[in-house]
């Protein structure tokens, strides 16, 4: 079974895999994609001594900062709050061995939607609009395309459609033996119909096809029970913070 230390390593690796600029040391890990969106840039861990360096590095960058309450060396909540950061969310980090998961028996077609991979920029713009709930932003779309289109992509974006209309999205981030299941979102009008389960199963299938051994995700309150049923287990909590607004 994947340990907490291994889980953090998987978490960092799969975030850095989507970046155009990243850093990782024993004291500090961060990634940037170039998108003006806080979920696509982040300080993944930092020691208290490294917070100042990270603040300089991320000046003016929309990003989420991670604090790990079960890891004293990376529990930087006090330092962030002292600098005016605000709490955004707390989620469990969950992991699963793909070889033994209950989801191995779940097919992508077991539900009301058709799940397909995004292959073009217009489809990726539709994906972005489902994920963000807003019109596609050219800078965000460009950053998503850099990691998510082409034969060497590390991010495999998924669209759920019913009668040709996009009603959900998800993503599989694959690097080496690690898969991150990300951005599982269903349109409000189509929730509680199993589309999130379909998207998750599809992301797991992508990971298996590309040789991943382990999967990792963070779960929303609504999603945690679903992921437990699929075979994911909690390893620890992560708390995310946003920097104070500038100007």
Give, in order, the helices and strands: HEEEHEHEEHHEEEHEHE
Determine the N-to-C terminus distance.
47 Å
Gyration radius, rounded? 17 Å
* Number of separate strands: 11
CATH superfamily of the largest domain, called what?
Gcn5-related N-acetyltransferase (GNAT)
Dominant shape: globular
Strand content: 25-35%
How helical, in percent, are the residues? 25-40%
Low-pLDDT ranges: 102-109
Average per-residue pLDDT, rounded, comes to: 92
Tell me the strand order in the biggest sheet.
1-2-3-4-11-5-10-9-8-7-6
- Output the structural class: alpha+beta
Describe what you observe in this structure:
The protein folds into two domains: 4-92 and 237-242, no CATH class; 97-236, Gcn5-related N-acetyltransferase (GNAT) (Aminopeptidase, 3-Layer(aba) Sandwich). It is built from seven helices and eleven strands. The protein has helices at residues 4-16, 51-57, 77-82, 121-132, 138-148, 195-209, 224-230; strands spanning 21-24, 28-32, 41-46, 64-67, 86-97, 114-117, 155-162, 165-175, 178-186, 214-218, 233-242. The chain has an eleven-stranded mixed beta sheet with strand order 1-2-3-4-11-5-10-9-8-7-6, sandwiched between helices. Strand 9, helix 6 (195-209) and strand 10 form a beta-alpha-beta unit. The longest helix has 15 residues, at 195-209.
Secondary structure layout plus pairing:
Elements: H1 4-16, E1 21-24, E2 28-32, E3 41-46, H2 51-57, E4 64-67, H3 77-82, E5 86-97, E6 114-117, H4 121-132, H5 138-148, E7 155-162, E8 165-175, E9 178-186, H6 195-209, E10 214-218, H7 224-230, E11 233-242
Parallel strand pairs: 3-4, 9-10
Antiparallel strand pairs: 1-2, 2-3, 4-11, 5-10, 5-11, 6-7, 7-8, 8-9
Helix pairs in contact: 4-5
Protein name: GNAT family N-acetyltransferase
GO molecular function: acyltransferase activity
Domain N-acetyltransferase: 113-247
């Amino acid at each position: 079974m994947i340990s907490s230390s291994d889980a953090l390593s998987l978490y960092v690796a799969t975030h850095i895999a989507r970046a155009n600029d990243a850093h990782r040391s024993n004291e500090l890990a961060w990634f940037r994609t170039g998108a003006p969106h806080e979920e696509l840039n982040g300080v993944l861990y930092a020691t208290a001594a490294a917070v100042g360096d990270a603040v300089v590095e991320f000046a003016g960058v929309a990003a989420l900062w991670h604090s790990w309450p079960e890891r004293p060396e990376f529990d930087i909540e006090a330092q962030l709050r002292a600098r005016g950061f605000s709490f955004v969310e707390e989620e469990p980090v969950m992991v699963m061995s793909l070889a033994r998961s209950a989801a191995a028996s779940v097919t992508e077609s077991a539900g009301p939607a058709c799940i397909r991979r995004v292959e073009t920029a217009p489809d990726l713009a539709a994906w972005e609009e489902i994920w963000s709930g807003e019109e596609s932003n050219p800078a965000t779309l460009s950053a998503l395309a850099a990691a998510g289109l082409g034969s060497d992509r590390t991010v495999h974006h998924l669209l759920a459609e019913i009668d040709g209309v996009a009603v959900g999205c998800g993503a599989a981030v694959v690097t080496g033996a690690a898969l991150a299941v990300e951005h599982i979102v269903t349109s409000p009008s189509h929730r509680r119909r199993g589309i999130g389960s379909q998207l998750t199963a599809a992301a797991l299938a992508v990971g298996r096809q590309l040789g991943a051994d382990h999967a990792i995700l963070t779960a929303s309150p609504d999603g945690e029970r679903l992921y437990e049923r699929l075979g994911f287990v909690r390893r620890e909590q992560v708390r995310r913070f946003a920097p104070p607004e500038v100007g």
